[in-house]
Amino acid sequence: MKRSIFYKLLGINFLLILFLSSLILIISFNTIKNHYIATLASELEDIAYSLSYKILPLFDESNSGKMDLLVKEIGRSIKPRITIIEIDGRVLADSKKDPLSMENHRDRPEVRVALNGGIGKSLRFSATVQENMLYVAVPAVKEGKIVGVIRVSLFVKDIDALLRNLRGKIFKITGIIVAIFLVLSIFFSTRVSKDIKTLVKASERMAKGDFNTKIFLNRKDEFGKLALSFNKMAEELKGLFDTLDTKQKELEGIISSLKEGLLVIDKEGEIILSNKSFENVIGKEEIKGKYYWEVIPNSELIELLRKALKNKNKKNVSGEIAIGKNIFLCSISSIHAREEWVTVLHDITELRKLETVRKDFVANVSHELRTPLTAIKGGVETLEDQIPGEAKEYLDIIKKHTERIINIVEDLLTLAELEEKDLSSEFKKVNVIDVARNVYKIYKQKADEKGIDLKFQATDSPIEITGDGFKLEQMFINLVDNAIKYTEKGYVIISIEKINRKVKITVEDSGIGIPKKHLDRIFERFYVVDKSRSRKLGGTGLGLSIVKHVVNLHNGEINVESLPEKGTKFVVFLPSA
After folding, report:
1. pLDDT tens-digit readout, 264-280
2. Residue pair 229/199 in contact by the 8 Å Cβ criterion
3. Mean pLDDT throughout 70-84?
4. Total tally of structural domains belonging to the chain
5. Would you say residue 209 lies in a domain?
6. Does residue 237 lie in a domain region?
7. Percent helix, strand and coil across the chain, each to the nearest 5
């Protein structure tokens, strides 16, 4: 069980008081003891010097008996023991013992100091009286010469009795101080504990969402400031959470109202958020907290999500998928800061139906127009030999425009064929160099007649891709035909090379070029940069659109670089076989 802050504070304060009290007790007692012993030693020193005036006249071997009687007489009137020692260490007189029975004192520490002219002091055990004693010895100087030592000593038991009395008083004083501080500590700990408990309870209420919590402490110290700061923080948090709650409800309303399906997953694949539209699409509800593969029944969508999660560069992933009878454009984007992925499903079923209708319409119209246009062309060619004069010019105009319409119809039929989904089933290995060389041969004479240097650059070794040879030939024909059409002088270069696992095809010219503002739209149907020039040269506006579809059919990519009056370069990358 966790101990409360009250007991922790009280325990710390009690230990601190106990430690300081013990420290003070030990230091003060030792200080007083040392001071008391030093005072006694000083008093013994004074007694020794006082005795020297009476003893020095008797400091002679012939008067040793008188000296001993004098010392014993003085010893009966004072507590300290008196010992007179000759310079050679023999005891001449002693107030407690017979000097003749006492051993030589020359090696006593206090005696050695006194014989050297100092004041010897020592606290030690006495072998004579079998007790601890405090000794003070002073030199006996007669006519400027040390003739012996006067030593005064005191029993330590007398000192201990005084110190025991002193120790008791110190203990009483210390106990009173400890009790006072302990009461103050209890009062302080109680108050601090109470304030902390108030803060803790307020924090717990706030953690549960009660931002109306307030703390009122009638204090001007740090706890009072903390209470004021807490109240201010509670007000600010309440405002922030109210704002966030409003924003959250707005966001939830927006997400719920979206017609597009919305799904958010984390890096582990767990669903964090989804809207009603997405749940309706997959036919399941309450999917939050589950993994996407557990609730999504569509394998195409699962594969796209797996591809996105495995994408280390966190690039966006998109693709068309069919769920039930509907077709969706699935777009998966990464939220880099949170390592989450957002999936949006756009229902493009109606759009695809419209595209199918449009494609069918174009294909049907083109098929229907092909027969009457061919008949018109045949009739015009028949009439050319039969109608003379100026009327023949009108036939030439009719023939020219009929041929242009026929070309448009043929290109539209080609586009309709390219847009079919199952054309890849007819793919086989094709040598791109052979296809490009055939186109080069077809246009070589036309280029020479126009004064254009048509070059073909490729290795002798075959470079193969898996594809449709006829469609690839259409791609080359459109690129090379455009390059020659829009180049008045200079060169057209066809080059093919293999780079890693891709085949790079380049068609470059030194023609009129394409302004930058048109580059993004040149692959659109019927889009022409210069309508008058295109019409004059017999362009249909569908050639580059056919090229783009052929490249897409072969899972390739096409780029264009161009500058007005500098030339144009088309670069196609196709996967090698």
Report:
1. 888 888 888 888 888 88
2. no
3. 84
4. 4
5. no
6. no
7. 55, 20, 25
